[in-house]
Design a protein that fits this description.
Blueprint: H1 2-15, H2 19-96, H3 142-152, H4 155-177, E1 184-187, E2 190-193, E3 196-198, E4 203-208, E5 212-221, E6 225-230, E7 236-240, H5 241-246, E8 249-253
Antiparallel strand pairs: 1-2, 2-3, 4-5, 4-8, 5-6, 6-7
Helix pairs in contact: 3-4
Length: 255
């Protein structure tokens, strides 16, 4: 009977009809389907996460590109304006120093009027027989004398004198203004200075006693110093936070 039972079970196994085989096979198929379904879900989740990360990175790169493009355009425009002014100044200086000019005869002539001084000699000596009038002393201030001197000098020399006066005035102003600045800090790559926030690629004026007032663009900001690029010659200048605190350098926003 045992042999007959084993033979019957063997035939059912070979034909695929053994109950124990069928139940285990059904269990394995259910596990297989469950694992396949789980793999599909994991795949969809991974694809969604990758797509979201791609979108975020693309947006960040686009924003960074747009910001740098605007900063580059502003820097180039500022540089071209400065070079244009320098070329115009050189051309004016060349014309005033005797360079040939086109259609010089057609240019309008101009005259300079000066203040009348005390006791100016009369041009008509024949009419000087009148009794002298009481003398009145007119004293001119230093500013009036300097203004008359600027009118007498050639334009290019007068411009140099004005620049020298402006630099001297700035140095004197800086001596009185140079003072410690305590309200200064650096956070998240930005500089807090004189109750204003400054960031990278921002247009500023840099002032110091040695270099005067220069237009520049902030290139980098860190905890110990900042680096600016001067528009006049496109060179970089490193300014420490300590120099800003001591008032050796000052910053102002530039539109």
């Amino acid at each position: 009977a045992v042999v007959s039972t084993q033979s019957t079970g063997l035939r059912q196994l070979q034909s695929g009809t053994l109950p124990g085989y069928l139940s285990r096979l059904a269990k394995l198929e259910a596990q297989h389907k469950e694992r396949i379904q789980k793999c599909h879900v994991d795949k969809e989740i991974e694809l969604q996460m990758i797509d979201e990360k791609f979108q975020r990175e693309s947006k960040r790169l686009k924003d960074d590109f747009d910001h740098k493009k605007v900063a580059l355009r502003e820097n180039l425009l500022s540089s071209l304006e400065e070079k244009k002014k320098m070329i115009e100044a050189e051309n004016n200086a060349a014309e005033l120093n005797g360079a040939p000019l086109d259609n010089f005869e057609n240019r309008p002539s101009f005259t300079r009027k000066l203040r009348r001084r005390q006791n100016d000699p009369d041009k008509d000596d024949g009419k000087s027989n009148k009794p002298p009038s009481p003398a009145i002393n007119f004293l001119l201030s230093d500013a009036e004398i300097e203004e008359d001197l600027l009118q007498i000098l050639p334009p290019h020399k007068a411009e140099r004198l004005r620049e020298r006066k402006a630099n001297l005035s700035f140095c004197e102003e800086t001596e009185h203004r140079e003072r410690p600045v305590t309200d200064i800090k650096v956070e998240d790559g930005r500089l807090y200075y004189e109750r204003k926030w400054y960031g990278r690629y921002q247009n500023v004026f840099v002032e110091s006693r040695e270099q005067g007032k220069l237009p520049a663009v902030i290139q980098s900001i860190c905890s110990s110093d900042i680096v600016v690029k001067k528009i006049t010659d496109m060179t970089k200048l490193k300014i420490t936070i300590s120099q800003l605190q001591k008032g050796k350098f000052t910053l102002k926003r530039r539109s």
